[in-house]
Amino acid sequence: MTTRTPLIIDTDPGVDDAFALALAAASPEVDLLAVTTVFGNVPLSATTVNARRLLALLGREDVPVAAGADRPLVHPHPHRARYAHGSDGLSGRSDTLPEPTRALDPRDAVTLMTELLAAATAPVTIAAVGPLTNVALLLAAHPWAREKIGRLVIMGGAVGGGNVSAAAEFNIWSDPEAARRVLAEERLPTVLVPLDLTMRCAVDLDWLGRVEAAGPVGAALVGLTAEYQRHYAQSLGWPGLVLHDAVAVAEAVRPGILRTTRYPVDVDCTFGPGRGATVADRRRTEVNREYGVDQEQAVDFALDTDLDGLRQFVLDRLSTL
């Protein structure tokens, strides 16, 4: 019997988060232990309602949802992503989803993660596809938790340029101090899935049409994408959209589906134009060693994959819902 990987998804739904949750729900390789929510694309109250409604849509109300951080660790969040995700995070259509029957978990996100990690008998993967505030708080308050985490798979960052600014990707920029704590100070097996790859994994309207035709769940997911499609038609220059968070969850579900390169990394926490940038040190190891760069303080940047194979993998899984 194949052992399923225990998985916690920390998220700020968000259209691409909706597809990510659906992918996890459709993947028998993982045991979805919990969904924890964080501020980000929209305020925490909306991301939490969205997560609960999405799990109701997916028939996964057995999975607890706990609310986490409603703001960054240190500095105010400058603005949210309504320009891409709509006023409620789901193109203004959150209320078209089923109303959840399971109550919000009374524990906060960090407490729920802590208790699940303590009880776990196998290493747990945490897929963090929103700002990293909850994960930073978990690791700061409960350092023993590192021993129970098999991998962090994080959607965030960029090597070649950002989206919310010329340098920074939205999730990292939303709380750079938390991101720096997780990426540059912890020593955990970490896969960072940056814009450099997720933008290349964009899907077209034909792909969306096939998800929609697969059944009522697929149709409901595609029905959440109107605002997101309008945004990405401008960003991509052609009709389609980018499933950022689903690309990261694909790696959490099937390790190795993304090809990675290991780099030391830092996060710009200054207040200049580079705030929130992930700075990958791409110099040769021999050079870094000469300059005293800690090679152990590095993460695996997912920079390549079989693009058509990844799109087909996600499509096949969503078609089973």
From TrEMBL:
Limits of the Inosine/uridine-preferring nucleoside hydrolase domain: 7-309
UniProt GO MF annotations: purine nucleosidase activity
Alphabetized Pfam families for the sequence: IU_nuc_hydro
Keywords recorded for this protein, A-Z: Glycosidase, Hydrolase
Domain of life of the source: Bacteria
Gene3D superfamilies: Ribonucleoside hydrolase-like (3.90.245.10)
Any one of the GO BP annotations: purine nucleoside catabolic process
An example Gene Ontology CC term for this record: cytosol
InterPro entries: Inosine/uridine_hydrolase_dom, IUNH, Ribo_hydro-like
Protein name in UniProt: Nucleoside hydrolase
Source organism (scientific name): Solihabitans fulvus
